[in-house]
Write a structure and sequence with these properties.
By secondary structure, this protein is mostly helical. It contains 19 helices and twelve strands. α18 (418-430) crosses α19 (438-462). The chain binds one RNA strand through α4, β7, α6, β12 and α11.
Length: 463
RNA sequence: GGCCCCUUCGUCUAGUGGUUAGGACACUGGCCUCUCACGCCGGUAACACGAGUUCGAAUCUCGUAGGGGUCACCA
């Protein structure tokens, strides 16, 4: 069985890079009828791990991801780590090191001064006694001058020499708490993780973890190190680059499926396909198709994807999502016309809501440029004539087509062209020269409201 | 600095020895048109560089350059 995991450290929110690796892990597990686990890595900064977990769960819920089983907290698992540390100690695969932090710093400083790579000199590796009044750390005995090789599912064969990349690294601090590279290996094994999909910033940690696996006789999982996401300038993504928190995308009016589609395609592809439903991702995703190189975040493409998903969303879905933006369309009589008109025009739900309000609410003022350009001297007469025409109009005025008929009859009677009146009507309804089709917006506001707004515009023009 | 990784249009990518190097976003010309969008048709634009191997290289090898990651009693 394929078991994957997402193992964030508790930072308070789920960022988009994390969501991408979580998504990859989730897809791969689910595609193989396996399990996707969630583990909070709080061995050291245990302070707000609960909050962080809540934030992750909230984001997961929004995008439709869910871990199998309970969330694991490393802070709850200290006994497990301690027993393994003891085991290594008993088997002479690890040892107590009494070197103090100060001594270590000093050693490092002189090594750096001599242009040497800073590393622990293994002075306690074979020491069997004890030093009074010193709380020792526990270090693992890493093999001397050995090549560690592993086949990364994305990067290919990686091999490093133990002497060049590590020393006898610390697996337990002087207060007894275990360190990251140790617990990761223990947890992944204990949790039965078979495929580790994570950011490639962990690539250089992998040999250390392999040392732990080997010392304990564990089987190695398959590793996939996915390249990171860069900002639009090709630099490391940072808070300054805008939305990092997944939930910000909700606030900005993105549909979760658009975000997921965007993220899954960042570094991964399936031929020329751009749009993926969740089901298709599940069918087509394979971590072996992930690119080796980092990819830059492209906000325009996300927007394009979002508008695409909005365009293809049902009335019900849109009505539901729009409530988050304080727009309740449920009792709007012509909501279908409104949605159809705006679906193709709004790139985000936020924009959708704003544009809706522009139509639904009577304009408080009129766009100056539009007024200057389209409301010429004769506009007031045309508006008045149309107002009269509308007031005594006998036919039904229900849908967009009815208004189109009405307008064309009016134009014919007065010997006018559409462009003579279109912008006047538009400005009267939304207050600017930009909106969906006038027939649609007339139908949406309805005859009475239309009359009211035209009157208001006439009044405005008269002063 | 040591070690490791990476390099196809501006961006996301397809491509696995023989292609006019394909698609998408963005940009742009046009059509549609009551404005703005949508949509449709078209255009600009890339194999980092240099050596090899080969009849033939974006694809294989080696260098160079550039970018990134990592070197903690952080994760």
């Amino acid at each position: 069985m394929v078991i994957t995991r997402f193992a964030p450290s508790p930072t308070g929110y789920l960022h988009i890079g994390g969501l991408r690796t979580a998504l990859y892990s989730y897809l791969w597990a689910k595609k193989n009828d396996g399990k996707f686990l969630l583990r909070i890595e709080d061995t050291d900064l245990k302070r707000n791990s609960k909050e962080a977990a809540d934030a992750i769960e909230e984001a997961f819920k929004w995008v439709g991801l869910k871990q199998d089983g309970d969330i694991y907290y490393q802070s709850d698992r200290m006994d497990i780590y301690k027993s393994y540390i003891q085991k290594l100690l008993d088997e002479d695969k690890a040892y107590y090191c009494y070197m103090s932090k100060d001594e270590l710093d000093e050693l490092r400083a002189t090594q750096m001064k001599n242009k040497q790579r800073p590393r622990y000199d293994r002075r306690y590796r074979n020491f069997t006694g004890s030093v009074p009044d010193v709380k020792p750390v526990v270090r693992i005995k890493t093999p001397v001058n050995e090549i560690i090789k592993f086949d990364d599912g994305i990067k290919g064969m990686i091999s490093v020499n133990t002497d060049e990349v590590m020393d006898d690294f610390i697996i337990a601090r002087s207060d007894g708490s275990p360190t990251y590279n140790f617990v990761v290996a223990i947890d992944d094994h204990e949790m039965g993780v078979t495929e580790v999909i994570r950011g490639d910033d962990h690539l250089s940690n992998t040999p250390k973890q392999i040392i732990v696996y080997r010392a304990l006789g564990f089987d190695l999982p398959k590793f996939y190190h996915v390249p990171m996401i860069l900002n639009p300038n090709g630099k490391k993504l940072s808070k300054r680059d805008g939305a990092m928190d997944v939930m910000e995308y909700k606030k900005e009016g993105y549909l979760p499926e658009a975000l997921l589609n965007f993220l899954v395609r960042l570094g991964w592809s399936h031929k020329d396909q751009e749009i993926f439903s969740f089901k298709e991702m599940l069918e087509l995703f394979n971590p072996k198709d992930i690119n080796k190189s980092a990819s830059a975040y492209n906000a325009e493409k996300l927007l394009w994807l979002n508008s695409n998903f909005i365009k293809n969303s049902s009335y019900e879905r849109l009505i539901k999502e729009l409530k988050f933006f304080d727009l309740n369309l449920e009792n709007i009589e012509k909501k279908e016309i409104l949605i159809d008109a705006l679906r193709e025009r709004a790139k985000t739900l936020k924009e959708f809501a704003e544009k809706s309000r522009l139509i639904l609410n009577e304009p408080q003022d009129y766009d100056q440029k539009a007024v200057k350009k389209f409301l010429k001297a004769e506009a007031i007469e045309i508006a008045k004539e149309f107002l009269n025409y509308l007031t005594v109009y006998k036919e039904d005025l229900n849908n967009s087509n009815d208004y189109e008929v009405c307008i064309s009859k009016f134009l014919e009677e007065k010997n006018l062209k559409l462009k003579n009146i279109a912008q006047i009507i538009r400005i009267s309804i939304v207050g600017s020269a930009v909106s969906p089709s006038i027939y649609d917006i007339m139908a949406i506001v309805g005859q009475n409201e239309l009359i009211k707004r035209i009157k208001k515009l006439i009044k405005f023009m008269e002063v």
